[in-house]
Amino acid sequence: MGMVAVPQGGPARLTAPDAVTGRRARMANPLRNPRVTVPIVSLAIIPVVWALVAASNVFGTAIVSPAATVREIYDQWSVLWLNAQPTLVATVIGVGVLLAITALGALVVALVPHITPALAALSVVIGTLPLIILTPILSLVVPRGRPLVATVCVLAGLVPVAAMLSGMASVGQRGRDELGAVYSASRLRWWRYVGFWQTVPVLDIGIRAMIPYCFVGSIVAEWSGASTSFGLGEVMTNALFSYEPPLLWATIFLAATGSLGLLAAATLIMTPLRRRAR
Amino acid sequence: MTFERQTTPVPGTVATFSRPPALAYGPGTGELRVDRVSYSYGTAPQTEVKAVDDVDFTIAHGALGVLVGQSGCGKSTLLRMAAGLIEPSLGRITFGTASPAELRKQRRVGFAFQDPSLLAWRTVRRNVELPFDLAKLPVDRPWIDELLGIVGLAEWAGHRPRELSGGMRQRVSLARALATKPDLLLLDEPFGALDEITRGELNFELLRVLSATRTTCLLVTHSVDEAALLGDKIIVLSHRPCAVKLTYEVTTPRELRKDSRDTVEFLEHCRAVRAGLAA
């Protein structure tokens, strides 16, 4: 009878090359990656639940089925697109302004690291104050229409931007007191070679959180009368008051799709940076 | 007159090693002197905690000094003072005629931390080159190539830290500390998290590199064996506030130490250090 060598010493450990191979396998087959599958499954479940609730007729005619909503979008496309454009443009302007604020904030954070505690406190204050409620007052000083909607959009996006800058301030300085100090690295050099790359995960999450906030901000601004006559928020309000649930659902569906589209665009833009910093 | 120190090349190891001109000290004066140094945390008398108390020792030029003591006794504080990252409350530290802060500003200090703290987005080579980027110095590529060879990572130069084992990461950290050809190398328990075999290999690599580059080094460790194996001078520190309990000179030549681990002489060194710690 032959002898069999039994490996000793407990369970096998995952070595670095194995870990790399596993990651590569997940990248080769995205369906094995929970970061891809979980959002896809979640998005697939929503219309199913929606269809079931609509079919149950519990809420009467207020809940329109997904099929009826898509039909309404097809029928009213020209009206919906005409109104979606100003909302989208205002959101893009707001996002642009917020990105500029982020870039400026990052520079301040890099040059004045002592600002971190103040920034953290400020982010709590900004996060607590519902800045959107300032819309009626702002309409007295900012011209109604695109400028006011974009302003409210910026106010809505300031909450995640403030939190992001606070996070960047603390993460970006990590190690500067040791490694940076040993080589007498200037603040800007540290930021360029180390700090910025350390903040990429915070930047990634912050920007992805900011964009839906901005879109919601634009729509809420339109609800509050910030727009002159066009906008998805305007259509929602009109559909509500004239009791047109299919049109209301069509605008909600479009708003959600638009928000997801902007989120996907932000993810695509951030992906190369995120991959490089990983 | 500018001064250029060219060390004797060791075949197959550090052939191109030459330091840039020293600014604040002359040849052969790279002696680390810790002169009656004390350090306290906190400024108010009620909250003041004394971490280092009247510590006094010297490490000769090119020698390796080892600080041994219990956890939290103040070894790292002492090392940070030697790096010029914090100022002593009393006493002074000099390297040649320069203060640690001056030395640091001249980029003459290398520091390897307990945690290798490598940058995940940089390759091994780019991690070793980081001090040049931070210090705004031109990258010395031949030296980096050679350094990677010395620490046995030449084939891993293009890999990211996540693809390396713990020992390899520590070797990268050591190479990074040596990248700017420092005159003073400070090592804060750099092998603390490693297994016995890797630790042993790195100990001898460190000795080889230091001998070849004639770099003055101060190492912090918990391990008595490591201290007896590496140190030319072992400084045994008391518990907080840390004070020098014993200074022990090891006279065994470095090149013989690899084979000396089971000798009576080595065991004698260990016993003396342990006795110092227990006293």
Q: Given the helix and strand composition of chain B, which structural class is it?
A: alpha/beta
Q: What proportion of the residues of chain B form beta strands (DSSP E)?
A: 15-25%
Q: What is the β-strand count of chain B?
A: 9
Q: Which blocks of ≥5 consecutive residues of chain A have pLDDT under 50?
A: 1-19
Oligomer: heterodimer
N-to-C span of chain A: 52 Å
Rg of chain B (CA only): 18 Å
Give your account of this protein's structure.
With 278 residues, chain A is mainly alpha-helical. Helices cover 77% and strands 0% of the residues of chain A. Chain A is built from eleven helices and no strands. Chain A has helices at 16-28, 34-56, 66-75, 77-111, 116-128, 135-141, 146-172, 176-182, 187-223, 232-241, 245-277. In chain A, helix 5 (116-128) packs antiparallel against helix 7, helix 9 (187-223) runs parallel beside helix 10 (232-241) and helix 9 packs antiparallel against helix 11 (245-277). Chain A is globular, with a radius of gyration of 24 Å. Chain A starts with 15 loop residues before the first helix and ends with a helix. In chain A, 33% of the residues are buried. Chain B is of the alpha/beta class. Chain B is 33% helix and 21% strand. Chain B is built from nine helices and nine strands. Chain B has helices at residues 75-82, 100-105, 124-135, 141-150, 166-178, 196-213, 224-230, 254-257, 264-278; strands spanning 32-41, 49-59, 64-68, 90-95, 109-112, 184-188, 216-221, 233-237, 244-249. In chain B, strands 5-6-7-3-8-9 form a six-stranded mixed sheet, with helices on both faces. Chain B is globular, with a radius of gyration of 18 Å. Residues 1-17 and 19-28 of chain B have low confidence and may be disordered. At the A-B interface, helix 1, helix 8 and helix 9 of A face strand 5 and helix 3 of B.
